[in-house]
Request: fold
Amino acid sequence: MYAFDLARPADLASAVTSLQTEGAQALSGGQTLIPVLKQRLSQPSVLVDLSGIDSMKGIRRAGEFLIIGGGTTHGTVAGSAEVASAIPAIASLASKIGDPQVRNRGTIGGSVANNDPAACYPSAVIALGATVETNKREIAAEDFFQGLYTTSLEEGEIVTAVKFPIPVAATYQKFEQPASRFSLTSVFLAKMGDGSVRVGVTGAGADGVFRHAGLEAALSADFSAAAVDGVAVDAGMMSNDLHATPEYRAHLVKVMTKRAIAALS
Reply:
């Protein structure tokens, strides 16, 4: 590690001001940033700790939406009766993230802002068509994620909440890499109120999280495992590493989608 200044603002306005300092970087749960700092892959002069901003924490239902504050930990989401009642698939997703230490420190805002290609939350955000709320604006899920570790967030912009439309039904099926517990290939499947089916895939895409239009069209017409069989999943879209080949990940997309169908049938 190396020397840096630490700012601990108690409100959002103070955090925004602190982030205007040259070389400043926001710190949420720190589950990605701290290891990066230890490896000196990032060397900010000021860390702005967002953990003391109470207005960014909490879970509430507003009509047909579930709103989760950006500073809310995975553990809080996993154990929330409000989440379990509105969108139980999100509670299940949160319960599968990392280990207890990660779940009790990591936050939904940090996960979404970091946009790790194997993170769990981004699949729920795009599958449900959520809105990412920041200190400046509201960003539709389709516009937010822009590739590996890349989002539409501007310099100094903070994720304050994520607003999820409540689906008719949803499930998250995770095939994890056993050592890291990150997603090797996972699927968030949602049945929406308009009759459509949406499929978010994480851990597999060469360009990060994505929706699969072919699976969505097939399942919106016929919600069955047989419909999945008739859909081609392009291995050329998949990532390739020591854990899995693109072909294996393409195969897993269909396998996990079938598991999702079984879970909702």
Q: What stands out?
A: The first helix runs from residue 12 to 19. The domain at 5-49 is CATH 3.30.43.10 (Uridine Diphospho-n-acetylenolpyruvylglucosamine Reductase; domain 2). The first strand starts at residue 5 and ends at 7. The mean pLDDT is 94.
